[in-house]
Amino acid sequence: MTKKLPVTKNEFAPSRRAFLQGTAAVGAVAGVAAISSKAFAACPDDSPRVYPNQDDSEIRWAFLIDLTRCVGCQSCAVACKTENDVRLGYFRNGVITYESGTYPAAARDFVPWLCNHCADPPCLGGCPVEPTQATMHFPNGDVAEYFARATYQRPDGLVMVDQDRCVGCGACVTLCPYEARYLDPVKAAGGDPGRGAADKCTQCVQRLENGVVPACVNTCPHEARIIGNFNDPNGPIQSAIANDGAVGVLLSEGTEPRCFYIGLNETAYTDGDEPRKEAGLQTVIA
Fold first, then answer.
1. What 3-state class would DSSP assign to 275?
2. Tens digits of residue pLDDT in 61-80
3. Contact call for residues 282 and 271 (beta carbons, < 8 A)
4. Angle of CA points 236, 237, 243, to nearest 5°
């Protein structure tokens, strides 16, 4: 049987006021990393990703989704499309409907699916665009310098796409084990209308930088999802991992995902061959 939706207030969901107080300074000071115009022949050690201090930085964004509260209403997907101008037929944020068992012991699970903003994102390694230097300033005065291709990762963990520099090759789309990326046919890569630019969840960075929670978090009617600081040992993310069995998906890929689920059907989603295809997600996210 499916679990009955709890009616008590989500202990993991911070109030809007608390979130604003905790993140307004980050948004005001950090901002989108300013990428300089100077191009470098290669990143240090010839690495496609260099983001010093990510593990020790002041903030490292992560999602927490409580599946015991999710009812599969798709409000998160709709809010994301509205907020981020996502094309008809495409989704940055989708919901898997996974059915298991047979009557009278059949069950249906709902699993929101999005970019995991991994600690070791494989999508970065395939981008052919020349890296440029980028700098991010943290509220505590720390400055992190790193290198960014068209697909890059900020020191706060957000995996981003610079669509003005993207060439629409699709390499990052192919390399994502979560199939959470796609080529948008309208958002022109590098300004070329003949090439679609890569697109994906950005955790609504434009909202985070103004001290506002992502659209999907704000819209969820059952407070099933929150965003928090993975580097806060006393925060809701670490608490859920330690006390509530929150886990990531496709752990065998070694990407160290930063989207965690409470109440996940581990057999179906944390490992195994093509669980998204098994769950029919290809019909949800293009």
1. helix
2. 999 999 999 999 999 999 99
3. no
4. 80
